[in-house]
Write a structure and sequence with these properties.
The protein contains 14 helices and 12 strands. Helix 6 links the parallel strand 3 and strand 4. 40% of the residues lie in helices and 15% in strands. The chain is α/β, with parallel strands linked by helices. The protein folds into 3 domains: 93 residues, no CATH class; 180 residues, 3-Layer(aba) Sandwich (Rossmann fold), CATH 3.40.50; 55 residues, Arc Repressor Mutant, subunit A. A 9-stranded mixed sheet has the order 1-2-6-5-4-3-7-8-9, with helices on both faces. A 3-stranded antiparallel sheet has the order 10-12-11. Helix 1 crosses helix 4, helix 2 packs across helix 3 and helix 6 packs parallel to helix 7.
């Protein structure tokens, strides 16, 4: 059962999310983190905390009634990459298969009013990536997003749709069949409590989750004011790679994407371009995946003494590496079975007997 205090933390205003992340990473129990934030921000409202917990408790009951699962930041299944961002959602509401959270993920986003060229490219890239064992992340919006989800589903792979409304609501409504097709092998995700309507302010907020779940973000057609550029900025802030597909220079539809290319984003024409940019991340078709190097050869293990639980900040400090550099290596070690994630963004070394 998810702690109602964690859900209550997710109900705090957006300007407090970094404070929430900092307190959780510091080891504060959710109830204590909530009490401290409420006392600091609403000193004249002693009932504020209790009201938030009551709303959170009702949300948990509503989610259970609507067959949603809540995935707390402290759960071992919480996505490793997302836990490392500065403002991770305290709780994710999900429906579908959580297995989609296991492979490395690539985000594909772009224009809602996409050209037929952009739709075709997004669908092909997503199908190729999903066919090689990666998870495709997008936002279930019209245009490029929905094409990316369709491509992954058609390839028999997994895809994650991050919503700007409650996970029990499909927006736009015409994508309800697409959402149903995602669920058997993929996942519908939202940080917003069940029943939350698709209001405009929620869509920019969810973009940090799209990038946070992903090793890289691929922009397929974006205008100068496209919301996809917000996702690209989030990705850069989080240390993720940003790649872009070139488009027609005459139409003006991809000026935002071309601006990213001028600023140094990698040009993407095929899925191979994405995989070449992410060498060492893994996620290739498992039938041809190279054997991993022996885990004992990785010097990163020296910073994880046996039996000691360490959070990401501690490993960053000890190793001198950035979080963006550490996450792929920690993922590889986790896949090899010598590092385990124990919840709350913490890791422990798992030594096996000879």
């Amino acid at each position: 059962m998810t702690d109602p205090a964690l859900v209550a933390l997710s109900l705090l205003p957006v300007y407090l999310w970094r404070d929430v992340g900092a307190r959780l990473r510091a080891g504060d129990p959710p109830a204590l983190a909530l009490a401290r934030i409420v006392a600091d921000r609403w000193p004249d409202d002693p009932q504020k905390g209790a009201a938030l917990v009551a709303e959170a408790t009702a949300a948990l009951a509503r989610g259970a009634a609507r067959r949603l699962e809540s995935l707390a930041w402290s759960d071992a299944d919480y996505p490793l990459a997302l836990a490392a961002i500065i403002d991770p959602p305290p709780v994710l509401w999900t429906r579908g298969s959580r297995d989609a959270l296991q492979p490395p993920a690539i985000a594909i986003v772009g224009s809602r009013a996409a050209s037929s060229y952009a739709v075709d490219v997004a669908e092909r890239l997503a199908g190729d990536l999903a066919g090689r064992g990666l998870t495709v992340v997008s936002g279930l919006a019209r245009g490029v997003d929905s094409a990316a989800h369709r491509g992954a589903v058609a390839a028999g792979g997994s895809t994650i749709a991050v919503l700007g409304c409650g996970a029990d609501i499909v927006y736009p409504a015409e994508h309800a069949p697409l959402a149903r097709s995602i669920e058997p092998r993929g996942l519908i995700i939202s940080e917003l409590i069940p029943g939350t309507p698709p209001l405009p302010q929620f869509f920019p907020q969810r973009n940090r989750i799209i990038s946070g779940l992903s090793r890289a973000v691929v922009i397929v057609e974006a205008g100068e004011r496209s919301g996809s550029l917000i996702t690209a900025r989030c990705a850069l802030d989080q240390g993720r790679d940003v790649l872009a597909v070139p488009g027609n220079v005459l139409s003006g539809r991809n000026r935002g994407g071309h601006a990213l290319l001028r600023d140094g984003a990698r040009i993407v024409e095929t899925a191979d371009d994405i995989l070449e940019e992410l060498q060492g991340v893994g996620g290739l078709d498992r039938s041809v995946q190279p054997l991993p190097r022996p885990a004992s050869a990785d010097p990163l293990l020296a910073y994880l003494p046996a039996g000691e639980t360490c959070d990401l900040d501690v490993i960053v400090e000890r190793s001198g590496l950035t979080a963006a550099r550490l996450l792929p290596r920690l993922f590889e070690l986790e896949m090899q079975g010598v590092v385990a994630r124990v919840g709350g963004g913490r890791f422990v070394r798992v030594d096996r007997p000879c």
